Amino acid sequence: MNFDRDTLKSTVSLNVSAVKTGSTFLSYLHDLAFIIAGVLLVFSLLFRVVVVSGPSMNDTLVDGDWLLLVGNVLYKNPQQGDIIVASKDSFDNGTPIIKRVIATEGQTVDIDFETGVVYVDGVALTEPYTKTPTNIEEGVKFPKTVEKGCIFVMGDNRNVSKDSRSIEIDLIDCREVLGKAIFLCFPGKSPSTNSRIFGRIGVL
């Protein structure tokens, strides 16, 4: 069998081009895999996704809500009003809890359990986010001054929430805070309608 020299050159050229194209594609694929792995690693270090369990933050958050959390690598200084996730060994074997920061170190919390009003440094808080007034005592004595490096937290659904009013939880050490909830990614089912209200998705 005889081959024309030009035909042979053309065939070799096509084969070389195909090899180069395949090599370039594999190189891009390799680089893309490393980029995706790097992004996932950074995301896992700086952010978390958590799922709300229980009714203690109703109606702000409901059971089954998926939340994006800024992890404690970045989140170092909890502020009053922040919604945080913490893990405290003395409560439920360290199962994460989600609560709202009511007071930070040096502030004094007092609660009038008859009227359900919460005071911080003598000033009554305006709390439009609460489902119920704060009428339930859980063992901690008030007024209570928040110790250095700690926060005082409560759930928005005050009368079903186990929180810093309880001697089981009391103050949360900032080192026990896993992060701050910043975004509702996917809604759980509303207790009142038993349906997902997708309009709730957004910044917390």
Helices and strands, with pairings:
Blueprint lengths: L4 H42 E5 L14 E6 L11 E4 L10 E8 L3 E5 L4 E4 L2 E2 L19 E2 L4 E5 L17 E2 L3 E10 L15 E2 L1
Antiparallel strand pairs: 1-2, 2-11, 3-4, 3-11, 4-9, 5-6, 5-8, 6-7, 9-10, 11-12
Report on this structure:
21% of the residues lie in helices and 27% in strands. The chain is of the alpha+beta class and 204 residues long. 26% of the residues are buried. It folds into two domains: 1-46; 52-203, Ribbon (Umud Fragment, subunit A), CATH 2.10.109.10. The protein starts with a helix and ends with a strand. It has one helix spanning 5-46; strands spanning 47-51, 66-71, 83-86, 97-104, 108-112, 117-120, 123-124, 144-145, 150-154, 172-173, 177-186, 202-203. The strands form two sheets. Strands 1, 2, 3, 4, 9, 10, 11 and 12 form an eight-stranded antiparallel beta sheet that branches. It has a four-stranded antiparallel beta sheet with strand order 7-6-5-8, with no helix packed on it.
